[in-house]
Amino acid sequence: MPNVYARRLGVLASTAALAALTSLVSAPAAQAAPPTPISAAAARAYLATVTPQAEGSNAGYSRDLFPHWSTVSGACNTRETVLKRDGVGVVTDSSCASVSGSWYSEYDGATWTAASDLDIDHVVPLSEAWHSGAGSWTTSKRQQFANDLTRPQLIAVTDNVNQAKGDQDPAEWLPSRTAYRCTYARMWVHVKQYWGLSMDSAEKTALVNVLNGC
Fold first, then answer.
1. Contacts of 162 (CB under 8 A, 6+ apart)
2. Is there a contact between 47 and 189 (Cβ–Cβ < 8 Å)?
3. Torsion of CA 148, 151, 155, 161, to 10 degrees
4. In 3-state terms, what secondary structure has residue 119?
5. What is the band of 34 on the pLDDT scale with cuts at 50, 70, 90?
6. What is the distance between the alpha carbons of residues 36 and 57, in angstroms, rounded to a whole number?
């Protein structure tokens, strides 16, 4: 009996040790879907109401005026939250950093297995937002915009593709993956509509052209 008891204690100790180790890395969870943008029909209807306005000045703009990435829960900030949401089989460590997983970049069709190869794109860039109306917002409102997980404003994509996009609007840049352009246009219109941001003439025309083909 003493030997059986000792074996049971050993099993319990091993189980406890395994549980402690497992707590350092979270297992893959069910993936949340990115926010669904408004339909092409709804986007076209909204654009029909838009009176184009010339872009405002970029004077005074700084990314620091759009604080990001905000804490979402525990050690997880907005960037890590989007990486977990947009990936498949994402595993995170105790600091919420993604240590493994797979990510498909909708903009260019590339698949990555290292989080370091991805940027979190602001669909409507911060600079674009600044001269479309956000320059007059409070810092608090700009922070909400820069960390908006409710609208389709944030997406994990190939880092150099995001960097090539920069602060360009749809008249200047669209995803190279043409199959995603309708979705991208719907996302852009959804974000601008919700946040009350203006559009210039070339931007509106480009969006209308994309959405008319959807």
1. 107, 119, 121
2. yes
3. -100
4. strand
5. confident
6. 31
Q: Please give the distance of CA 133 from its chain centroid, rounded to a whole number.
A: 21
* Prediction pTM value: 0.85
The answer to whether 195 and 153 have CB atoms below 8 angstroms apart is no
Residues contacting 163, CB < 8 A, separation 6+: 119
Mean pLDDT of 79-107: 97
Token couple for 48:
């029909």
Collect all residues with Cβ–Cβ distance below 8 Å to 81 and sequence separation of at least 6: 72, 73, 149
Question: Residue 63 has which token pair?
Answer: 């990314």
β-partners of residue 122 are: 154
The answer to whether 132 touches 197, Cβ cutoff 8 Å, is yes
